[in-house]
Amino acid sequence: TPRTLELVSDSRARGANVFTTIAAHSLFFNEIDVGDYLTYCKVNPPFRDEETRQAMIAALKAGEIDSVVSAHDPQPPEEKRLPFGEASFGAAGLETTLSALLSLVHDGPLTLLEALAPITSKPADMIGLPEGRLAEGAPADVILFDPNKPWLCEREHLLSRSTNSPFDGRRLQGRVLRTFVGGVQVFER
Prior knowledge:
Blueprint: H1 2-13, E1 21-23, H2 24-28, H3 50-61, E2 67-69, H4 77-80, H5 97-106, H6 112-116, H7 121-126, E3 142-152, E4 171-181, E5 184-188
Parallel strand pairs: 1-2
Antiparallel strand pairs: 3-4, 4-5
């Protein structure tokens, strides 16, 4: 939230080595998306108002947010198909993180590099790892993606064991086509 960013800024001004993260879905959704208590949108922290969502996008653009995370915390269907108050917190997030960020590129607030840095080089820098960039001698952990590829997120087609996603039924743009770990292809769409 904006208040959290103020606390982080104050801490950094006093010399503290602190970092900020935000879930990709929190940059895409706001509290209105919960609708009639849609349990797939029950996440922790919860979706905030639109003003806060926009403030977080601006903070990401300004470099105040260090990393965007998937917040991948899928829950078994029996834990999500309950009344809202009883349903578990959590959602599948791995397959939608890049698309959520690319929506901010397509809608204009972020450049492609501003969207990619918080899921590549910036998290690696936070913990002092060489990953997250293309460089000679660096680990060949790479994804090949089409930033313009449209797709419909349908929970039954997600690869996660539990497919509860707030993106279910949403049209997204940008899709991972291949994933390489250590130079070896481990996924192909």
